[in-house]
Amino acid sequence: MYESLQSTDSQVSNFWSLVDTVEEKAYNTTKGLQTLDSSLAILETSINTLDSDSAALDEAFAALGNTNPDVSNAINSLSDAMPVIEGVRSGIGSGIQAIDDYLVTTIDDLQADIQPPSESFESTGRYIAIAVVFALTIISALGSGLLSLRVKHPVWASAFVALLWLFVTLLMLLGVGLLNGVRVVSKDACLYSETFAVNYAKDKVQDPQKKEWILNALNYYFNASEVVDEQPGAALKAVVNVDIREIYRLIQTPEVAQLTAFLASVDPDILSAAGVPPTTVTAVQDISSAIVPLSATLAEIDYLVSRRSVQPVYEGAKSLICCDFSSASDDLYLAWTIVGCIGFVLGFFCSIRIVRHTFSNKN
């Protein structure tokens, strides 16, 4: 009984702790994508404004003493990148929707339907179930042994032996049958969990585009030996199908860095005094505030979905299946089968004793 309680002590809690970790990563990834989308929206609006009023802006910059063509070239480069920015924003929307549909929703359903009863069973239910089965088995075993020793009360002896056979049968069904099946399934799950996840995704996801996205993400995480481009943005492209590599490359160029530094130093009051329209002045301020944190935002999101970030979760899931569940099922199978075998032997000898006593009384 102690072995049974000890073996089932923390499996459920460990599982839900792992689910909470996955949920937190999904939330952080979604939040990061939303932040990125907001920054790109500001950048998109600012670029459009600056591009539409480039002549006035060049005059203002010249009035401020900046005649470096790299600033105008950087604005032109950002303007040329507008289709890329629009494509990334569209991909972000699809990525957030896919994460919500096939990860967050699944976790929410699990937490709503399974978590309360499973945690209740771990905290109280398993104690009651295991204690009742073993207590009744022990009582029936003691009663059978004592009453069968001299058979002074054959009716009671027969009743206790019958109860003993009932609980032995229950223990053997649970041990040799159910728990052995769980033990085999847990070992198979350890070996083929990746294959199961891929097949489950193929069956569950109907939309071809989202199915391809999920399968590519699973392939990225499961094939750790596969050579993957570790350049910034590669993980996000592989997992969420959002290609930020061109934007990342663009904002790292010296021209854009120089543009950002120059715009950050421009006094908006001076621009207004030079006759620059208010919308353009706002765009000058916004484009600098949008580009500066963009590099860190891109790197953070890319790391969140990378193998390095997800590997601990993946290893935790494998450990839970291969070690915790497998070890617990082995221990339970062994303990319950041994108790069942002992009860079987005791029941066998008690039954022989009662049968002999019955025949001797008839004779």
Plain-language structure description:
With 363 residues, this protein is mostly helical. It has one domain. It has 15 helices and no strands. Helix 2 (11-52) runs antiparallel to helix 13 and helix 6 runs antiparallel to helix 7 (154-204). The protein is rod-shaped, with a radius of gyration of 34 Å. The model has no long low-confidence stretch (mean pLDDT 76).
Quick overview:
With 363 residues, this protein is mostly helical.
Helix content: over 70%
C-alpha end-to-end distance = 43 Å
Count of folded domains: 1
Average predicted local confidence, pLDDT: 76
The helix tally amounts to 15
Low-confidence stretches: none
What is the ordering of alpha helices and beta strands? HHHHHHHHHHHHHHH
Radius of gyration: 34 Å
Number of strands: 0
Largest sheet: none
Shape type? rod-shaped
Look at the helices and sheets and give the structural class: mainly alpha
% residues in beta strands: under 5%
Architecture blueprint of SSEs:
Elements: H1 2-7, H2 11-52, H3 54-63, H4 69-80, H5 82-113, H6 115-150, H7 154-204, H8 208-222, H9 234-240, H10 245-251, H11 254-265, H12 268-273, H13 278-291, H14 294-304, H15 307-362
